[in-house]
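Case study: Glutamine--tRNA ligase.
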Amino acid sequence: MSSNERDPVPHFIRNIIEADLKGGKHKSVVTRFPPEPNGYLHVGHAKSICLNFGLALDYQGKCNLRFDDTNPEKESEEYALSIQDDVRWLGFQWDGEVRWASDYFEQLYAFGVELIKQGKAYVCDLTPDEMREYRGTLTQPGKDSPFRNRSVEENTELFQKMRAGEYPDGSKVLRAKIDMASPNINMRDPAIYRIRRAHHIRTGDKWCIYPMYDYTHCISDALENITHSLCTLEFEDHRPLYDWVLDQISVPCHPQQIEFSRLELQYAITSKRKLNQLVTQGLVSGWDDPRMPTIVGMRRRGYTPEGIREFTRRIGISKSDNVVDMSVLEGCIREDVEAKAPRVMAVVKPLKVTITNFVEGESQSREGEFHPQRPELGKRVVPFAKEIWIESDDFMELPPDGFHRLKPGGEVRLRYSYVMCCDEVIKDAAGNVTELRCSIDPETLGKNPQGRKVKGVIHWVSVEDALPVEIRLYDRLFTVPKPDSDKEQDFLAFLNPDSLTVVQGWVEPSARDAQPEMLYQFERLGYFCADRRDHKPGEHLVFNRTVTLKDSWAKEQG
Ligand code: ATP
Ligand code: MG
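Here is what the predicted structure looks like once written out:
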């Protein structure tokens, strides 16, 4: 597989890589995807995964999966496992074993000692508040810590004692000794180690000091011989620190950090912390709720790896804002599943029709192809019967002009079957239409009726043969395009109360044995995916609407 099924889209990171390969700076490309195992991955991570693994594939290089596990309180094995599943499901495989920043804790510690020995790191006893005060602001330089000039011997001993657990949490940090007057606040003697007695998913209680992200990340990259360390733009101001650390110590190589813009999806949230909030507050059914922009959520909804990869190809890589309309993602999914999904008929809002002139043994069931462009998928029998369900929206008693579906006295083609005329409308006491009595024209099987044009074609299922199906219809999770950009109101205020509608419908019998995750086109309704969790083939059918047949967003927003 190449990174994507289609030609790669050129972008500035490709240009850099190509120049590096051509100019001999590197013989091959090594990238990495470095998630923190503190939540499930979302669509933004998919962009980063496709970029990092995709580049490695395109240039016959390697891509590592490395967990950035330096925040023990927030991290878990569950998250780490889910991330591995997500990467594989998207179609990628990392080079060798999964790697962990914690694999390097011993080396990171040794580099800390190395920095101290060179007089480039010191143990500082300022409290967090004092630290903040000494740090200065964007317009004011910082002040040197009173502990900045401790001797190498004292620092070596204090750092060793920090590791040995002789000091309480938060009482000391190891800081890089750079420049308290730097215009870049990240360079004002940043902390590189802190004391934290927290149980770690990999190292257990072995450590009570943990290295900070900025310090850990660059060294881990260098130890893995990463050539191009790709990250999002918020790390641009951290690049001088990345480079500074690597310049001071003896590491095998000095990877190049390159930043690109984060993907933001309209009507969605791309922050693990906020997604976590939705889950823990029970506002969605879990990380894999099909309304979630998580990879597991998209998967459960029926989005395909191919569609997601194509999406990341289309949105491209740059340094400018990358706020993308949901319709771009849905368009990619629709295109992919359109080519794959077998067609069946299902009715979501059933209205009963009795065929008054149905003749047992004579009025025929028909065969329908599962896919008009894919004869290899074969055909299925679509049973016809005296009673059928049609979509209640396909009938109107007083239709506007140009309505080509069913109306009193009007005719419509039943998909794969006869032309049918509505002879009688039956209502309940409240005036609601409860049933239609219709007749078919027996001469219209596979041919047009004589002397008249019937424009509409509607879907239907046989009442006696259809299977009950729970259908979950999804709408956008938020009511505004940028739910987390409002300064006054919390993003939760913009949750769409109607983002999930569950209906009881009917599907034709050929879907009886659909396996979980199987995708169908329910003709005229959209693409639907058998739910990974709740769908039980042959027993309890549960389908999620993956995407509608046409783009309904553009219209609604316009
Ligand atoms: P979040 O804010 O959702 O927690 P994060 O950046 O903290 O995201 P990490 O686990 O650290 O999450 O991310 C792993 C990689 O994915 C990083 O290289 C990060 O830059 C990238 N990434 C995260 N979010 C996005 C996004 N929205 N678009 C593109 N890349 C992203
Ligand atoms: Mg992070």
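For the exam, be able to explain this: The pocket of adenosine-5'-triphosphate (ligand 1) is lined by residues 34-36, 44-45, 47-48, 231-232, 262-263, 270-272 (CB under 6 Å).
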